[in-house]
Amino acid sequence: MSIFKKKIISDQSEVNKKHDALEFEKLSSLIELAQMLNQQNDFQEVLRVVAQKAAGLLNADTSMIMMINPQTRQTVKTIQRQGHEVNQDQFRSVHTHVSGWIIKNKLSFISTDIKTDARFKKNLFKDSPINSIIGVPLITEGIILGTILLLNLKNELISIEADLSYLEKFANIVAPFLRNVQCVQQYFEKPIPQTTLFAKYNALGLLGKSQKFSELLQAIEAAARCDVRVLLEGPSGSGKELIARAIHQFSARSDKPFVAIDCGAIPPNLLESELFGHVKGAFTGATTDRNGLLEAADQGTLFMDEIANLPLEMQAKFMRVLQEGEIRPIGSNKTRSIDVRFISASSSPLRKLVDSQQFREDLFFRLHVYPIQVPHLNDRPEDIPLLANHFLQEFSSQQNKPVELFHEEITDFMQLRHWSGNIRELENFVERLVTHASLHTKIIDKAILPQELKKEFKKFHKSLPEQFTPKSLNEQLSVFEEQIIRDSLIGNNWNQSKTARLLKISEQTLRYKMGKLGIVR
């Protein structure tokens, strides 16, 4: 056999090995998914994780879980959506027809170009931004519960046979949990009241009252119940380390160490020693044995911030730690077993880094067990006054100044300002204002603003009449009414009969008001 032929066979063998290893990681992620779902009793959180994992693992722009009404078996409703937002009218036609086809035929669906798909009427989807779709039925005990759809808005195809096969396996695992958890949620479990949840995490420095913040706390609460790897994705400065500490604090490992490392802050040549440790004489300057952070976190939690900054060589070594549960310090020929819960974080979506070959795909599958998307501060402006006042109290105490509150103009300015640096920028902003305040200042007003911020405030103030239109009495009453009804529904586990009796109105009136005010679970 020629050297050339041997090289081809060797290269092909290497490709096959990599393919088999990746398939193994995909199947391992399904097993981890089943283990995680087995620890959950929050139906809404199960839906969120399932939808987000489906989109992340198969690199879809949007994922949806649609369920059939269990009472009528006639209507289908989208109950969970993750990913790219699209026009509702354009979207509704596609998901209704595709899910209808899947439910009617009890078959999986794949289309590389939905606009020209012969299974549907010509030009039915001509205005849709959606390009390719794969979808599978959710079936358990021979009953169709609904569908999982993955949609792509770009020209690249997600609709390949391997993806469809994986999604079918994915659906087979999650379907029983969706059915069982729904029953538990409906008849036995009561969610933690929102006010209790806010107070619980307020004590750890997680502050807010917005809907997005409430959803984030629900995800944290659920993640704390599961001893699985968590992946936090969100912009820099959004408080990911604080979230990781909260998950650890309310987990079964709370009395064990919590260790944090910023993978982007340590030079690559020192990172291995920092993580794995070293023995005496391993390299110049290694005068004593030293335990690494992995060993320091044994029995506890290791938070790895900006994990995307791990060099590819270190990614391979870290992958082995996740697979084997063992470490080997630099210079040692002995391995040590460790039991660590990993919480990783990234300000860049890891899936995109995998696509650009900057992050190992097998490692992504290992980390993407319990994904949580951390919202940007700009997406929850209702929380800005709460956070700003918290920082105001903190810095006025540190600087021994009597500052007590913000003038209304400053509060409005902060709520409408764009915070590119997120919560961290808001914190620095407040600290700077307190620093500029005199020893007699009690209220932070526009006179205290530094010069460049005065210019920004002036532009803001000029545009204020256009941005701020005072709400009418009816509008303000509607907001108040919506909050009362929503809180009552949550307190009664969304049981409309109990809620109507509590509010002393008929169920028909309650349903009318829910529709009018846009109140949905």
Describe the protein in words.
By secondary structure, the chain is of the alpha/beta class. It folds into four domains: 14-187, Beta-Lactamase (2-Layer Sandwich), CATH 3.30.450.40; 210-279 and 293-375, P-loop containing nucleotide triphosphate hydrolases (Rossmann fold), CATH 3.40.50.300; 378-467, Helicase, Ruva Protein, domain 3 (Orthogonal Bundle); 473-517. Helices cover 50% and strands 14% of the residues. It is built from 19 helices and 16 strands. The strands form five sheets. The protein has a five-stranded antiparallel sheet, with helices on both faces. The termini are far apart. The model is unreliable at 184-189 (pLDDT under 50).
Overview features:
single chain, 521 residues, alpha/beta, Beta-Lactamase, Rossmann fold, Helicase, Ruva Protein, domain 3, 4 domains, five-stranded parallel β-sheet, 19 helices, globular
